[in-house]
Write a structure and sequence with these properties.
Rossmann fold, 5 strands, alpha/beta, five-stranded parallel sheet, 7 helices, single chain, 13% strand
Length: 171
Amino acid sequence: MIIFLFGTWGSGKSYVGDLIEHHSGIPHMEADLLFDKDMVRGIRLRNYHELDLDGYFNRIFSEVTSYMRRSPNIVISQAIYRERYRKFLYECFAPEVRFVWVYTPNFEIQKSRVDMRATGGSMINSEVIEYMSPYWEQPEIPHYVLNNDENLNVELEKMMKEFGVYFSWED
């Protein structure tokens, strides 16, 4: 099974992916690690229109396909702002794929999360997510919505049960 965690920057995808890995044993991969030099440069310079997103999502496809030859399960976190790329990945990996929209209802919390990470060297900050927010496309593909709020633990455990994955909060 492939679990794609998607949502705007700062929504908590990486956090949720780490929780799933820690409490279920399913490995978590942050797809941002697949950015090539040109992607990193384009994001740093805010040249979003010049990013090779087709190439990037083909790299994600290749990495996941390669990984699935070795292990049956993986969790991947990536913003995936555009619906066409969600559809591409859905069509590539159906029926093994589950998409989960990690949603944080408070935009100020998202901005503070990315600004905190930016102090550690991340190229994404609140200025970037404010700029990118109009580009977010509502998902149409089949997906679950996971609210990253005070009920996250309960909702995450419930969702993983629906996926048929053993999930325990005990270490």
